[in-house]
Write a sequence for this structure.
């Protein structure tokens, strides 16, 4: 077979896998938006069938043979060419997939579904003991899965690699340790100041008007409604069926102006990334975001660095006031800006502000490593959780519902690999935005004119178009010229919050 025929054969096979995954994504989107509760059982089966078919097609020995045969062709091409990248990334996916026995994968899925049901029932009763045996099994499965990949240094490494490829527990621990040392004094300095008044954000706001305002900014950002749509969901998410059908969801609370607005801008950031993937990558494993961290860098950038910026609200706030005169007429722009950027140590990760959020993630990351190493036993987990919250945030949760039971992650998938992406995303958002500002120092003034096209074009040229071609480390190196550094992100936080809270120490 000629190289052309081999490439065509590989692409045909990958397109079928992509179609099965796309169909599965439609089912998942529907399940979280419009499906009646009665559909849950059949839907679980339908999604499992599509996942299994896609997996079987990927681990087909014919795919392995094509990848072997195409190696000389791959090596003859530039590293970042479409074909070389496609062969390289497919090989990594293939090798990862063949390492895991389908029976183990199925057991983990089955256990995850049961564990999730038990967690849902245990939460209202604040009953950690009900989930504890399931969590022990989840940890055992996580280690068993890690053991499918030979040669790791830490059992979390293969699990981290699945969502943040190439990163390791050791490298992330070092980065997080560095960040903690900078963040903790910043949080302490902020906590010593009087908190800004923000009660007006929790008055009554008409849901439809909130949704319209959020979507207006999303469209101004460049989210293309001809290739996207927005629906309501209990837990907002973004999902892509192809670069031309990228959907976002949000939720709305009539007594919380933050909720719909910023979850819309967050998911829009994810959506802009997926809509920006080059069309020639469609139907291949390259058509998607690089990693959970890089994806989160985009949601955080458009939600926080842009969406909670003074510049943006200098443009939109008069219109927001006009939309909600009873609630906001007497609130000046500066007061609104301070309120949407209020920093306050809290117990719940998903409600945390930009500064304290990372402390929540690091607590989970450290506990995950301890659980996987066996240093921490499940029975001691609730107390370990409380101890870390007291130490890092100065708070003690009144119950495990506001403690170890709050996040779904450990009670659905695996223990390990799920949390680091959030904080990596924040760090990367700072690093990427810093690089964008170096190339185009006019971005803040452009944002103040609601002219987002130059920033979007920069992100597109440097990040979005490449899809999954590069690993996160490769992408960071290409975009910022060096390894991932916390410095730009910390500089951003110090400048913004130094000014907001009048902290002399940090205002330089
Ligand atoms: Zn996100």
């Amino acid at each position: 077979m000629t190289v052309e025929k081999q490439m065509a054969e590989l692409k045909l096979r990958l397109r079928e896998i992509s179609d099965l995954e796309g169909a599965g994504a439609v089912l998942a989107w529907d399940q979280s938006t419009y499906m009646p509760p009665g559909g849950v059982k059949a839907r679980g089966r339908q999604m499992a069938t599509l996942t299994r078919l896609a997996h079987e097609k990927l681990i087909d020995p014919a795919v392995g043979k094509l990848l072997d045969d195409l190696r000389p062709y791959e090596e003859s091409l530039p590293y970042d060419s479409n074909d070389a990248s496609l062969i390289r990334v497919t090989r990594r996916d293939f090798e990862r997939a063949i390492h895991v026995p389908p029976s183990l994968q199925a057991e983990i899925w089955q256990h995850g579904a049961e564990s999730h049901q038990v967690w849902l029932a245990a939460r209202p009763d604040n009953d950690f003991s009900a989930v504890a045996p399931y969590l022990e099994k989840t940890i055992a499965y996580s280690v068993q899965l890690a053991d499918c990949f030979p040669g790791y240094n830490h059992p979390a490494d293969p699990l981290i690699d699945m969502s943040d490829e190439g990163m390791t527990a050791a490298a992330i621990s070092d980065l997080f340790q560095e960040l903690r040392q900078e963040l903790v004094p910043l949080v302490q300095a902020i906590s010593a100041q009087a908190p800004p008044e923000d009660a007006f954000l929790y008055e009554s706001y008409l849901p439809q008007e909130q949704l319209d305002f959020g979507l207006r900014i999303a469209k101004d950002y460049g989210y293309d409604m001809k290739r996207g749509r927005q629906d309501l969901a209990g837990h907002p998410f973004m999902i892509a069926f192809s670069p031309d059908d990228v959907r976002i969801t949000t939720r709305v609370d009539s007594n919380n102006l933050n909720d719909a607005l910023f979850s819309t801008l967050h998911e829009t950031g994810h959506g802009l990334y997926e809509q920006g993937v080059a069309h020639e990558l469609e139907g291949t494993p390259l058509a998607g975001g690089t990693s959970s961290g890089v994806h989160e860098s985009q949601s955080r950038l458009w939600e926080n660095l842009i969406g909670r910026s003074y510049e943006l609200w200098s443009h939109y706030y008069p219109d927001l006031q006009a939309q909600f005169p009873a609630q906001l007429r007497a609130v000046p722009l500066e007061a609104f800006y301070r309120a949407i950027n209020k920093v306050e140590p809290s117990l719940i990760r998903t409600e945390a502000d930009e500064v304290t959020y990372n402390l929540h993630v690091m607590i989970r990351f450290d506990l995950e490593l301890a659980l996987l190493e066996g240093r921490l036993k499940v029975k001691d987990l609730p107390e370990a959780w409380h101890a870390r919250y007291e130490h890092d945030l100065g708070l003690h949760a009144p119950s495990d519902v506001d403690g170890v039971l709050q996040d779904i992650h450990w009670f659905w998938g695996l223990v390990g690999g799920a949390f680091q992406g959030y904080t990596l995303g924040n760090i990367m958002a700072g690093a990427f935005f810093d690089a964008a500002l170096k190339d185009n120092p006019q971005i803040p003034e452009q944002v103040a004119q609601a002219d987002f096209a130059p920033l979007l074009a920069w992100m597109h040229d440097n990040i979005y178009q490449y899809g999954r071609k590069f690993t996160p480390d490769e992408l960071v190196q290409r975009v910022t010229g060096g390894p991932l550094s916390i410095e730009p992100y910390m500089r951003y936080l110090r400048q913004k919050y130094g000014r907001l809270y009048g902290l002399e120490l940090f205002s330089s």
About this structure: The beta strands are 228-232, 238-242, 245-250. The mean pLDDT is 95.
